[in-house]
Inverse folding.
Protein backbone atom coordinates (compact mmCIF):
# COMPACT_ATOMS: atom_id res chain seq x y z
CA UNK A 1 0.00 0.00 0.00
CA UNK A 2 1.37 3.37 -0.97
CA UNK A 3 1.60 6.25 1.44
CA UNK A 4 -0.98 8.18 -0.61
CA UNK A 5 -3.42 5.27 -0.51
CA UNK A 6 -2.97 4.78 3.23
CA UNK A 7 -3.76 8.42 3.87
CA UNK A 8 -6.83 8.27 1.59
CA UNK A 9 -8.20 5.28 3.48
CA UNK A 10 -7.40 6.82 6.85
CA UNK A 11 -9.04 10.15 6.06
CA UNK A 12 -12.16 8.49 4.66
CA UNK A 13 -12.32 6.19 7.68
CA UNK A 14 -12.03 9.06 10.14
CA UNK A 15 -14.63 11.00 8.17
CA UNK A 16 -16.95 8.00 8.32
CA UNK A 17 -16.50 7.66 12.07
CA UNK A 18 -17.13 11.38 12.57
CA UNK A 19 -20.27 11.17 10.42
CA UNK A 20 -21.52 8.11 12.27
CA UNK A 21 -20.90 9.81 15.62
CA UNK A 22 -23.38 12.50 14.56
CA UNK A 23 -25.93 10.43 12.64
CA UNK A 24 -26.25 7.33 14.84
CA UNK A 25 -27.28 9.08 18.07
CA UNK A 26 -29.81 11.17 16.11
CA UNK A 27 -31.31 8.07 14.46
CA UNK A 28 -31.33 6.23 17.79
CA UNK A 29 -33.12 9.18 19.37
CA UNK A 30 -35.78 9.09 16.66
CA UNK A 31 -36.40 5.33 16.69
CA UNK A 32 -36.09 4.79 20.45
CA UNK A 33 -39.87 5.01 21.06
CA UNK A 34 -40.30 1.77 19.08
CA UNK A 35 -38.51 -0.11 21.85
CA UNK A 36 -39.86 1.82 24.80
CA UNK A 37 -42.77 0.46 26.84
CA UNK A 38 -44.56 2.99 29.01
CA UNK A 39 -45.71 2.45 32.58
CA UNK A 40 -48.64 0.08 33.05
CA UNK A 41 -51.67 2.17 33.83
CA UNK A 42 -54.87 1.16 35.63
CA UNK A 43 -57.90 3.34 36.10
CA UNK A 44 -61.06 2.72 38.10
CA UNK A 45 -64.22 3.06 36.01
CA UNK A 46 -66.97 2.25 38.52
CA UNK A 47 -68.19 -0.21 41.17
CA UNK A 48 -68.66 -3.86 40.21
CA UNK A 49 -72.39 -3.60 40.81
CA UNK A 50 -72.74 -1.24 37.84
CA UNK A 51 -71.96 -3.97 35.33
CA UNK A 52 -74.24 -6.82 34.23
CA UNK A 53 -73.96 -9.93 32.09
CA UNK A 54 -76.36 -9.27 29.24
CA UNK A 55 -75.45 -5.79 28.11
CA UNK A 56 -72.57 -3.36 28.01
CA UNK A 57 -71.98 -0.20 29.94
CA UNK A 58 -69.93 2.47 28.21
CA UNK A 59 -66.99 3.90 30.17
CA UNK A 60 -64.44 6.52 29.22
CA UNK A 61 -60.95 6.49 30.65
CA UNK A 62 -57.48 7.83 29.87
CA UNK A 63 -55.26 5.62 27.76
CA UNK A 64 -52.57 8.17 26.86
CA UNK A 65 -51.59 10.81 29.39
CA UNK A 66 -50.54 14.36 28.63
CA UNK A 67 -52.72 15.22 25.64
CA UNK A 68 -55.98 15.99 27.39
CA UNK A 69 -59.21 14.69 25.91
CA UNK A 70 -57.42 13.31 22.86
CA UNK A 71 -55.79 10.69 25.09
CA UNK A 72 -59.12 9.31 26.32
CA UNK A 73 -60.64 6.14 24.97
CA UNK A 74 -63.96 4.34 25.26
CA UNK A 75 -64.54 0.80 26.47
CA UNK A 76 -67.73 -1.28 26.64
CA UNK A 77 -67.70 -3.22 29.91
CA UNK A 78 -69.83 -6.14 31.18
CA UNK A 79 -69.55 -9.20 33.40
CA UNK A 80 -68.61 -12.50 31.76
CA UNK A 81 -71.64 -14.43 30.61
CA UNK A 82 -72.54 -18.01 31.56
CA UNK A 83 -74.69 -18.43 28.46
CA UNK A 84 -71.69 -17.70 26.22
CA UNK A 85 -69.46 -20.25 28.02
CA UNK A 86 -67.12 -17.59 29.37
CA UNK A 87 -65.11 -17.97 32.55
CA UNK A 88 -67.37 -16.93 35.44
CA UNK A 89 -66.96 -13.80 37.51
CA UNK A 90 -64.71 -11.90 35.18
CA UNK A 91 -64.98 -8.42 33.74
CA UNK A 92 -65.02 -8.14 29.93
CA UNK A 93 -63.87 -4.77 28.58
CA UNK A 94 -64.16 -4.35 24.80
CA UNK A 95 -62.37 -1.44 23.14
CA UNK A 96 -64.43 0.73 20.81
CA UNK A 97 -61.52 0.99 18.37
CA UNK A 98 -62.56 -0.67 15.11
CA UNK A 99 -60.16 -3.41 14.01
CA UNK A 100 -60.35 -2.12 10.45
CA UNK A 101 -58.76 1.34 10.61
CA UNK A 102 -59.41 2.57 14.12
CA UNK A 103 -62.68 4.46 13.90
CA UNK A 104 -64.86 4.43 17.03
CA UNK A 105 -67.50 1.66 16.97
CA UNK A 106 -70.79 1.91 18.88
CA UNK A 107 -72.66 -0.84 20.71
CA UNK A 108 -76.20 -0.92 19.33
CA UNK A 109 -78.43 -2.29 22.06
CA UNK A 110 -81.31 -3.29 19.81
CA UNK A 111 -79.11 -5.35 17.48
CA UNK A 112 -76.74 -6.58 20.19
CA UNK A 113 -73.93 -5.73 17.81
CA UNK A 114 -71.03 -3.30 17.57
CA UNK A 115 -71.27 -1.20 14.41
CA UNK A 116 -68.58 1.00 12.89
CA UNK A 117 -69.72 4.26 11.25
CA UNK A 118 -66.79 4.58 8.84
CA UNK A 119 -66.80 1.53 6.60
CA UNK A 120 -69.59 -0.64 7.92
CA UNK A 121 -67.76 -3.11 10.12
CA UNK A 122 -70.10 -5.22 12.31
CA UNK A 123 -69.13 -7.26 15.40
CA UNK A 124 -71.27 -9.60 17.49
CA UNK A 125 -71.95 -9.30 21.23
CA UNK A 126 -68.53 -10.72 22.12
CA UNK A 127 -66.74 -8.45 19.65
CA UNK A 128 -66.19 -11.10 16.96
CA UNK A 129 -66.35 -9.84 13.40
CA UNK A 130 -69.54 -10.80 11.60
CA UNK A 131 -69.47 -8.38 8.67
CA UNK A 132 -67.59 -5.65 6.84
CA UNK A 133 -63.88 -5.05 6.36
CA UNK A 134 -62.39 -5.61 9.87
CA UNK A 135 -59.65 -8.23 9.99
CA UNK A 136 -60.10 -9.51 13.56
CA UNK A 137 -62.34 -9.12 16.61
CA UNK A 138 -62.40 -5.91 18.65
CA UNK A 139 -59.52 -5.35 21.07
CA UNK A 140 -59.98 -5.84 24.80
CA UNK A 141 -58.62 -4.13 27.88
CA UNK A 142 -57.22 -6.01 30.83
CA UNK A 143 -59.66 -5.74 33.72
CA UNK A 144 -59.51 -6.45 37.45
CA UNK A 145 -61.49 -5.66 40.59
CA UNK A 146 -59.83 -3.74 43.42
CA UNK A 147 -61.79 -2.71 46.52
CA UNK A 148 -65.07 -3.30 44.74
CA UNK A 149 -64.03 -1.04 41.87
CA UNK A 150 -63.56 -2.25 38.31
CA UNK A 151 -60.17 -1.15 37.00
CA UNK A 152 -59.13 -1.18 33.34
CA UNK A 153 -55.52 -1.64 32.26
CA UNK A 154 -53.48 -2.16 29.09
CA UNK A 155 -55.00 -3.01 25.76
CA UNK A 156 -54.62 -6.43 24.18
CA UNK A 157 -55.84 -7.94 20.92
CA UNK A 158 -57.53 -11.28 20.39
CA UNK A 159 -57.56 -13.92 17.68
CA UNK A 160 -60.74 -14.95 15.92
CA UNK A 161 -61.17 -17.54 18.70
CA UNK A 162 -60.86 -14.77 21.32
CA UNK A 163 -57.46 -15.98 22.51
CA UNK A 164 -55.48 -13.05 23.93
CA UNK A 165 -52.40 -11.85 22.06
CA UNK A 166 -50.32 -8.69 22.37
CA UNK A 167 -52.01 -5.51 21.20
CA UNK A 168 -51.98 -4.96 17.45
CA UNK A 169 -52.86 -1.85 15.52
CA UNK A 170 -56.10 -1.81 13.57
CA UNK A 171 -55.85 -3.43 10.16
CA UNK A 172 -53.43 -6.13 11.34
CA UNK A 173 -54.53 -9.77 11.39
CA UNK A 174 -53.95 -11.93 14.47
CA UNK A 175 -53.39 -15.66 14.99
CA UNK A 176 -51.57 -18.29 12.94
CA UNK A 177 -48.98 -17.06 10.47
CA UNK A 178 -50.15 -13.47 10.97
CA UNK A 179 -48.38 -13.45 14.33
CA UNK A 180 -45.15 -13.42 12.27
CA UNK A 181 -46.29 -11.17 9.43
CA UNK A 182 -47.50 -8.60 11.95
CA UNK A 183 -44.99 -9.17 14.74
CA UNK A 184 -45.86 -7.96 18.25
CA UNK A 185 -44.35 -4.56 18.96
CA UNK A 186 -42.01 -4.12 21.94
CA UNK A 187 -44.03 -1.09 23.02
CA UNK A 188 -47.09 -3.20 23.86
CA UNK A 189 -47.82 -5.14 27.04
CA UNK A 190 -47.95 -8.95 27.28
CA UNK A 191 -51.53 -10.24 27.11
CA UNK A 192 -53.23 -11.68 30.20
CA UNK A 193 -52.44 -15.36 30.59
CA UNK A 194 -55.23 -17.86 29.97
CA UNK B 1 -31.32 54.58 -23.84
CA UNK B 2 -31.64 50.98 -24.90
CA UNK B 3 -32.23 48.47 -22.14
CA UNK B 4 -29.50 46.29 -23.59
CA UNK B 5 -26.82 48.66 -22.45
CA UNK B 6 -27.81 48.03 -18.84
CA UNK B 7 -26.88 44.39 -19.15
CA UNK B 8 -23.21 43.51 -18.98
CA UNK B 9 -21.88 42.17 -22.24
CA UNK B 10 -21.52 38.54 -21.15
CA UNK B 11 -25.20 38.42 -20.08
CA UNK B 12 -26.60 39.77 -23.36
CA UNK B 13 -28.37 37.42 -25.67
CA UNK B 14 -25.74 35.86 -27.88
CA UNK B 15 -25.88 37.02 -31.51
CA UNK B 16 -27.10 34.52 -34.06
CA UNK B 17 -24.28 32.85 -35.94
CA UNK B 18 -23.32 34.89 -39.01
CA UNK B 19 -25.09 38.03 -37.89
CA UNK B 20 -23.11 41.16 -37.28
CA UNK B 21 -22.26 41.63 -33.64
CA UNK B 22 -23.15 45.30 -33.75
CA UNK B 23 -19.57 46.50 -33.56
CA UNK B 24 -19.54 47.81 -37.12
CA UNK B 25 -17.29 50.78 -37.64
CA UNK B 26 -19.00 54.11 -38.05
CA UNK B 27 -18.16 56.24 -41.05
CA UNK B 28 -15.06 58.36 -40.68
CA UNK B 29 -15.71 62.02 -39.98
CA UNK B 30 -16.09 63.86 -43.26
CA UNK B 31 -14.20 66.88 -42.21
CA UNK B 32 -11.33 66.45 -39.81
CA UNK B 33 -11.06 70.18 -39.39
CA UNK B 34 -14.40 70.64 -37.62
CA UNK B 35 -14.03 71.47 -34.00
CA UNK B 36 -14.24 68.54 -31.61
CA UNK B 37 -17.49 68.11 -29.65
CA UNK B 38 -17.79 70.29 -26.61
CA UNK B 39 -16.39 68.75 -23.43
CA UNK B 40 -19.29 67.37 -21.30
CA UNK B 41 -20.01 69.15 -18.06
CA UNK B 42 -19.39 67.50 -14.68
CA UNK B 43 -23.14 66.95 -14.22
CA UNK B 44 -23.37 65.20 -17.58
CA UNK B 45 -20.45 62.96 -16.75
CA UNK B 46 -21.93 62.13 -13.36
CA UNK B 47 -25.20 61.27 -15.08
CA UNK B 48 -23.44 58.95 -17.49
CA UNK B 49 -21.61 57.28 -14.63
CA UNK B 50 -24.89 56.78 -12.79
CA UNK B 51 -26.41 55.20 -15.89
CA UNK B 52 -23.54 52.75 -16.02
CA UNK B 53 -23.74 51.88 -12.33
CA UNK B 54 -26.14 48.89 -12.56
CA UNK B 55 -24.14 47.37 -15.37
CA UNK B 56 -20.96 47.96 -13.41
CA UNK B 57 -22.33 46.20 -10.34
CA UNK B 58 -23.50 43.23 -12.40
CA UNK B 59 -20.13 43.08 -14.13
CA UNK B 60 -18.37 43.19 -10.76
CA UNK B 61 -20.38 40.20 -9.55
CA UNK B 62 -19.95 38.37 -12.82
CA UNK B 63 -16.20 38.82 -12.80
CA UNK B 64 -16.03 37.11 -9.42
CA UNK B 65 -18.61 34.34 -9.94
CA UNK B 66 -18.51 33.72 -13.69
CA UNK B 67 -22.25 33.18 -13.34
CA UNK B 68 -23.08 34.71 -16.70
CA UNK B 69 -22.12 31.63 -18.69
CA UNK B 70 -24.50 29.51 -16.65
CA UNK B 71 -27.24 32.15 -16.72
CA UNK B 72 -27.12 32.74 -20.48
CA UNK B 73 -27.07 28.98 -21.04
CA UNK B 74 -30.12 28.59 -18.82
CA UNK B 75 -32.13 31.64 -19.86
CA UNK B 76 -31.53 31.42 -23.61
CA UNK B 77 -31.69 27.65 -23.93
CA UNK B 78 -33.41 26.22 -26.98
CA UNK B 79 -37.04 25.22 -26.63
CA UNK B 80 -38.65 22.80 -29.07
CA UNK B 81 -41.41 23.84 -31.45
CA UNK B 82 -44.93 23.09 -30.24
CA UNK B 83 -44.20 24.00 -26.62
CA UNK B 84 -47.59 24.84 -25.11
CA UNK B 85 -49.42 25.58 -21.89
CA UNK B 86 -49.08 22.00 -20.66
CA UNK B 87 -45.36 22.70 -20.27
CA UNK B 88 -46.10 25.23 -17.53
CA UNK B 89 -47.42 22.63 -15.06
CA UNK B 90 -43.95 22.02 -13.62
CA UNK B 91 -43.39 25.74 -13.00
CA UNK B 92 -46.88 25.95 -11.54
CA UNK B 93 -46.00 23.18 -9.08
CA UNK B 94 -42.83 25.05 -8.17
CA UNK B 95 -44.81 28.23 -7.54
CA UNK B 96 -47.24 26.25 -5.37
CA UNK B 97 -44.30 24.93 -3.36
CA UNK B 98 -42.80 28.40 -2.94
CA UNK B 99 -46.20 29.66 -1.78
CA UNK B 100 -46.40 26.82 0.75
CA UNK B 101 -42.88 27.56 1.98
CA UNK B 102 -43.54 31.29 2.45
CA UNK B 103 -46.94 30.94 4.13
CA UNK B 104 -45.56 28.05 6.22
CA UNK B 105 -42.74 30.18 7.60
CA UNK B 106 -45.21 32.84 8.72
CA UNK B 107 -47.65 30.30 10.19
CA UNK B 108 -44.77 28.88 12.23
CA UNK B 109 -44.41 32.28 13.89
CA UNK B 110 -47.78 31.81 15.60
CA UNK B 111 -48.21 28.03 15.77
CA UNK B 112 -47.44 26.06 18.93
CA UNK B 113 -46.63 22.38 18.30
CA UNK B 114 -47.94 21.21 21.66
CA UNK B 115 -50.83 18.80 22.11
CA UNK B 116 -52.54 21.09 24.60
CA UNK B 117 -51.96 24.39 22.76
CA UNK B 118 -51.91 23.51 19.05
CA UNK B 119 -55.67 23.80 18.57
CA UNK B 120 -55.83 27.09 20.45
CA UNK B 121 -52.91 28.55 18.50
CA UNK B 122 -54.62 27.72 15.19
CA UNK B 123 -57.82 29.31 16.48
CA UNK B 124 -55.75 32.34 17.47
CA UNK B 125 -54.26 32.55 13.96
CA UNK B 126 -57.70 32.30 12.36
CA UNK B 127 -59.58 34.62 14.69
CA UNK B 128 -57.16 37.21 16.06
CA UNK B 129 -54.06 37.55 13.90
CA UNK B 130 -54.25 40.20 11.15
CA UNK B 131 -54.75 38.34 7.83
CA UNK B 132 -54.16 35.10 9.76
CA UNK B 133 -57.16 33.39 8.25
CA UNK B 134 -55.92 34.31 4.75
CA UNK B 135 -52.39 33.01 5.29
CA UNK B 136 -53.67 29.85 6.97
CA UNK B 137 -56.18 29.38 4.17
CA UNK B 138 -53.50 29.84 1.51
CA UNK B 139 -51.41 27.16 3.20
CA UNK B 140 -54.33 24.78 3.73
CA UNK B 141 -55.85 25.04 0.24
CA UNK B 142 -52.43 25.48 -1.35
CA UNK B 143 -51.46 22.00 -0.20
CA UNK B 144 -54.34 20.51 -2.17
CA UNK B 145 -53.43 22.69 -5.15
CA UNK B 146 -49.85 21.46 -5.02
CA UNK B 147 -50.88 17.79 -4.90
CA UNK B 148 -53.23 18.29 -7.85
CA UNK B 149 -50.57 20.15 -9.85
CA UNK B 150 -48.00 17.44 -9.12
CA UNK B 151 -50.33 14.84 -10.58
CA UNK B 152 -51.19 16.97 -13.63
CA UNK B 153 -47.47 17.57 -14.21
CA UNK B 154 -46.85 13.83 -13.88
CA UNK B 155 -49.65 13.08 -16.34
CA UNK B 156 -48.25 15.59 -18.86
CA UNK B 157 -44.81 13.98 -18.58
CA UNK B 158 -46.31 10.52 -19.04
CA UNK B 159 -48.64 11.25 -21.93
CA UNK B 160 -46.04 13.35 -23.81
CA UNK B 161 -43.48 10.55 -23.37
CA UNK B 162 -41.14 13.02 -21.69
CA UNK B 163 -39.94 10.34 -19.24
CA UNK B 164 -38.06 8.44 -21.94
CA UNK B 165 -34.30 8.37 -22.55
CA UNK B 166 -32.36 10.39 -21.48
CA UNK B 167 -34.82 11.72 -18.91
CA UNK B 168 -35.56 8.55 -16.88
CA UNK B 169 -33.60 9.80 -13.87
CA UNK B 170 -35.68 12.97 -13.79
CA UNK B 171 -38.84 10.82 -13.72
CA UNK B 172 -37.40 8.91 -10.76
CA UNK B 173 -36.57 12.14 -8.93
CA UNK B 174 -40.08 13.33 -9.73
CA UNK B 175 -41.58 10.20 -8.18
CA UNK B 176 -39.57 10.79 -5.01
CA UNK B 177 -40.83 14.38 -4.99
CA UNK B 178 -44.38 13.07 -5.35
CA UNK B 179 -43.90 10.84 -2.30
CA UNK B 180 -42.37 13.73 -0.33
CA UNK B 181 -45.29 15.98 -1.32
CA UNK B 182 -47.73 13.38 -0.04
CA UNK B 183 -45.68 13.12 3.17
CA UNK B 184 -46.02 16.89 3.57
CA UNK B 185 -49.77 16.72 3.04
CA UNK B 186 -50.11 13.84 5.53
CA UNK B 187 -47.96 15.31 8.30
CA UNK B 188 -49.47 18.77 7.87
CA UNK B 189 -52.98 17.41 8.29
CA UNK B 190 -52.37 16.53 11.96
CA UNK B 191 -51.04 19.94 12.97
CA UNK B 192 -54.36 21.77 13.68
CA UNK B 193 -55.01 18.91 16.16
CA UNK B 194 -58.77 19.04 15.91
CA UNK B 195 -61.05 15.98 15.76
CA UNK B 196 -60.81 15.70 11.99
CA UNK B 197 -57.02 15.85 11.82
CA UNK B 198 -56.61 13.58 14.84
CA UNK B 199 -58.77 10.78 13.45
CA UNK B 200 -57.48 11.20 9.90
CA UNK B 201 -53.95 10.71 11.24
CA UNK B 202 -55.05 7.68 13.28
CA UNK B 203 -56.51 6.10 10.16
CA UNK B 204 -53.51 7.07 8.02
CA UNK B 205 -51.01 5.60 10.48
CA UNK B 206 -53.09 2.42 10.75
CA UNK B 207 -53.17 2.02 6.96
CA UNK B 208 -49.38 2.36 7.01
CA UNK B 209 -49.25 -0.28 9.77
CA UNK B 210 -50.92 -2.91 7.60
CA UNK B 211 -47.66 -3.37 5.67
CA UNK B 212 -46.39 -6.81 6.63
CA UNK B 213 -43.43 -7.25 9.03
CA UNK B 214 -42.19 -3.62 9.07
CA UNK B 215 -45.60 -1.90 9.12
CA UNK B 216 -46.20 -2.19 12.89
CA UNK B 217 -42.73 -0.81 13.64
CA UNK B 218 -43.21 2.06 11.19
CA UNK B 219 -46.46 2.92 12.96
CA UNK B 220 -44.66 3.02 16.30
CA UNK B 221 -41.97 5.20 14.74
CA UNK B 222 -44.52 7.66 13.34
CA UNK B 223 -46.47 7.83 16.61
CA UNK B 224 -43.35 7.75 18.79
CA UNK B 225 -45.11 5.06 20.84
CA UNK B 226 -48.03 2.66 20.85
CA UNK B 227 -50.67 5.41 20.83
CA UNK B 228 -51.03 8.72 19.04
CA UNK B 229 -49.95 11.25 21.65
CA UNK B 230 -48.16 14.47 22.48
CA UNK B 231 -44.84 13.37 20.96
CA UNK B 232 -46.59 12.37 17.75
CA UNK B 233 -47.54 15.98 17.13
CA UNK B 234 -44.03 17.38 17.65
CA UNK B 235 -42.63 14.54 15.54
CA UNK B 236 -45.01 15.31 12.67
CA UNK B 237 -44.21 19.00 13.05
CA UNK B 238 -40.45 18.38 12.78
CA UNK B 239 -40.94 16.15 9.75
CA UNK B 240 -43.33 18.66 8.20
CA UNK B 241 -41.25 21.80 8.56
CA UNK B 242 -37.63 20.63 8.76
CA UNK B 243 -36.94 17.19 7.35
CA UNK B 244 -39.11 16.96 4.25
CA UNK B 245 -38.88 20.60 3.05
CA UNK B 246 -35.08 20.33 3.01
CA UNK B 247 -35.25 17.14 0.98
CA UNK B 248 -37.82 18.68 -1.38
CA UNK B 249 -35.69 21.79 -1.98
CA UNK B 250 -32.61 19.67 -2.70
CA UNK B 251 -34.50 17.38 -5.08
CA UNK B 252 -36.22 20.28 -6.87
CA UNK B 253 -32.71 21.63 -7.49
CA UNK B 254 -31.64 18.33 -9.01
CA UNK B 255 -34.90 18.08 -10.97
CA UNK B 256 -34.49 21.53 -12.50
CA UNK B 257 -30.78 21.05 -13.16
CA UNK B 258 -31.67 18.04 -15.29
CA UNK B 259 -34.48 19.92 -17.05
CA UNK B 260 -32.04 22.67 -18.05
CA UNK B 261 -29.29 20.21 -18.88
CA UNK B 262 -31.41 17.89 -21.01
CA UNK B 263 -33.96 20.37 -22.37
CA UNK B 264 -37.67 19.77 -22.81
CA UNK B 265 -39.21 17.36 -25.28
CA UNK B 266 -41.29 18.36 -28.26
CA UNK B 267 -44.92 17.27 -28.06
CA UNK B 268 -45.40 13.77 -29.49
CA UNK B 269 -47.63 14.95 -32.37
CA UNK B 270 -44.81 17.07 -33.82
CA UNK B 271 -42.87 15.39 -36.65
CA UNK B 272 -39.13 15.94 -36.73
CA UNK B 273 -37.91 18.26 -39.51
CA UNK B 274 -35.95 16.71 -42.32
CA UNK B 275 -32.25 17.45 -41.76
CA UNK B 276 -31.18 20.47 -43.75
CA UNK B 277 -27.39 20.26 -43.50
CA UNK B 278 -26.44 16.63 -43.66
CA UNK B 279 -26.99 15.10 -47.08
CA UNK B 280 -27.44 11.45 -47.79
CA UNK B 281 -24.38 9.40 -48.62
CA UNK B 282 -25.44 8.86 -52.23
CA UNK B 283 -25.73 12.60 -52.76
CA UNK B 284 -22.31 13.11 -51.24
CA UNK B 285 -20.90 10.43 -53.47
CA UNK B 286 -22.43 12.14 -56.49
CA UNK B 287 -20.82 15.43 -55.48
CA UNK B 288 -17.39 13.90 -55.03
CA UNK B 289 -16.86 12.73 -58.62
CA UNK B 290 -16.34 16.23 -60.05
CA UNK B 291 -13.70 18.14 -58.11
CA UNK B 292 -13.56 16.14 -54.88
CA UNK B 293 -15.09 18.92 -52.74
CA UNK B 294 -18.67 18.11 -51.89
CA UNK B 295 -21.04 21.05 -51.44
CA UNK B 296 -22.30 20.91 -47.91
CA UNK B 297 -25.96 20.60 -48.78
CA UNK B 298 -25.58 18.33 -51.79
CA UNK B 299 -27.29 20.85 -54.07
CA UNK B 300 -25.14 19.94 -57.06
CA UNK B 301 -26.29 16.34 -57.14
CA UNK B 302 -29.93 17.06 -57.95
Amino acid sequence: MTRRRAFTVAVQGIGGIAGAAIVLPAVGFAVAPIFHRGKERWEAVGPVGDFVEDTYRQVIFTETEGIGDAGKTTAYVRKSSKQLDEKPNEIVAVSNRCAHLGCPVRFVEAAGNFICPCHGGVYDFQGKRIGGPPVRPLDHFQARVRDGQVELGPRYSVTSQLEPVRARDPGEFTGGVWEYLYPPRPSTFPPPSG
Amino acid sequence: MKLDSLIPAPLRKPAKPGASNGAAKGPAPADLKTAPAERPSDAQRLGDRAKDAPADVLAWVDQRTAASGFLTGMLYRKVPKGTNWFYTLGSATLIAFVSQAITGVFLAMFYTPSATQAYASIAHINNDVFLGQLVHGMHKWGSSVMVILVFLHMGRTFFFGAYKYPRELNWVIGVVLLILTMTMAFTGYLLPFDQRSFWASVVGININGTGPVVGPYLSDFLRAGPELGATTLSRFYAIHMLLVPGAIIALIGAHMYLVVKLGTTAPPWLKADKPKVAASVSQLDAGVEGNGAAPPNGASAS
